[in-house]
Amino acid sequence: MRDHVTISVNGKAVRVPPGTILAAAVAQAGVSSFRTSVRGEPRGPLCGMGVCFECCVTINGKAYSRSCLTLCEEGMEVKTNG
Amino acid sequence: MANQRLQSDVVVVGAGPTGIAAACAVAEHGMKVAVVDNSPWLGGQIWRGATTHPVPGRAGQWIDRLKRSGVSVLSNATAFAAPASHLLVAETPDGVLEITWNKLIAATGARERFLPFPGWTLPGVVGPGGLYAMVKLGWPVAGKRVVVAGSGPLLLAAADGLKQAGARVSLVAEQADWDHVLRFGKGLWRYPGKLLQGVGVKARLLGVPYRCGCWPVKAEGTAHVESVTLANGSSSWSEDCDYLACGFHLVPNVELPCLLGCALASGFVRVDALQLTSVPDVFCAGEPTGIGGADCALVEGQVAGLAAAGAEDQARTLFGRRATWHRFRTSLNQAFALRPELRHLATPDTFVCRCEDVRLADLKGCESLRAARLQTRCGMGSCQGRTCGAAVQFLFGWEPDSVRPPLFPVRLASLADESSHLDKPTLQTDNSLQA
Prior knowledge:
With 82 residues, chain A is mainly β. Chain A is built from 1 helix and 7 strands; from the N terminus they run E-E-H-E-E-E-E-E. The relative contact order of chain A is 0.29. Chain B is 30% helix and 23% strand. In chain B, strands 1, 2, 3, 4, 5, 6 and 19 form a 7-stranded mixed β-sheet that branches. A 5-stranded parallel β-sheet of chain B has the order 8-15-9-10-11. A 3-stranded antiparallel β-sheet of chain B has the order 12-13-14, with no helix packed on it. In chain B, helix 1 runs parallel beside helix 2 (58-68).
């Protein structure tokens, strides 16, 4: 098994150990606003377990994906909407 | 999107302690059982990370037992509809999966209760269980200042886990009064495992103040939380923090049982002695039947699994142990009952529904969740009221009403697939689990 996985968060490369959730990699990239609310506020993960949808990001072009329920995979391209 | 089909004697929804215990019991009686879970890992929230990081004690033992038992585990599968009797539909990364079953065990667990207060929508205000769950899978907290607040034993467990991960936990603020918590603590001698667990946690949290009878009233920061104001009814003070981990005990995930038609009693799924719900062939165990923790969940899961497998006599041998954990459950929920002051933390500008940014002031004049939904879109966003529903229930006494499919937002293609009934290939399941 590889000892790390590299993904891209808003164009910035992030190296994490395998088994890291995407939300954690986004936080490691220094991003705290994962999405913008309907009235324009920054939001980040709240529940951490797939319930609240505050951690949604765009993964490989697929919008509105829950980063707290997704494991990082090599080459994943992630865009936050914060 | 391909539709796939699977037939199973028993389907278990949820791969936490309840679901694992139930599935093992069924499989060990020679029946075909499939476990459906919406996450990529086993163990639910409490045992999360057990498959990627070695975990001590019984979580690892139960997961090993599950792996040996020949259970089909369907990870990343979100159950979202039940369009016909004995049919469950789940969305997977590969498309839609239709599962026909003879018996279903709902082991859907619980989520944290969040209550609105000014600043609770700032990034960095996270559930204690949620933050700890994310830390287990890489969320960086080393060196960060964390205030843990809200209610329930989960605050201490989360504080312990966060501290072990290198966080600087500056305070654990429990809303329940000290005498309630003390009475609960004194009663733990009846549950030696819990007592040992509690003593271990307290020892590891040496130097971290645990204050009872206080609660957060305001979080502040520009783009991220920077400080929290706490109050105890007579005074208030501020604490600087990088994270405010705040949750008010747990609420049951009853959406799937409700969709299946199961009756509730006081917000929990009503079950008989064999964990059977009001719907024939549908069992429910663990937190959806009452917030009792992992020990209670394990024994209820086993009872449900044995009953679903037809081994009712064997299930009855566990009733005594279950009764013990039900007594624990009662004292737990008495000790951490929410104080009325928490109903008045939100100001008119505070968002109550985070998905639709509905403010407290917007809800003025609404008399039910249904009215609020129609007039303000409260509870109509992506989380489908899972976050604000529990809040407005506590704030205004609005009971949750109907549950409709899809239970979670799904791709349009999945909805189209679910409604079509063309020839479908049968899914070849293998019993291999993700490493």
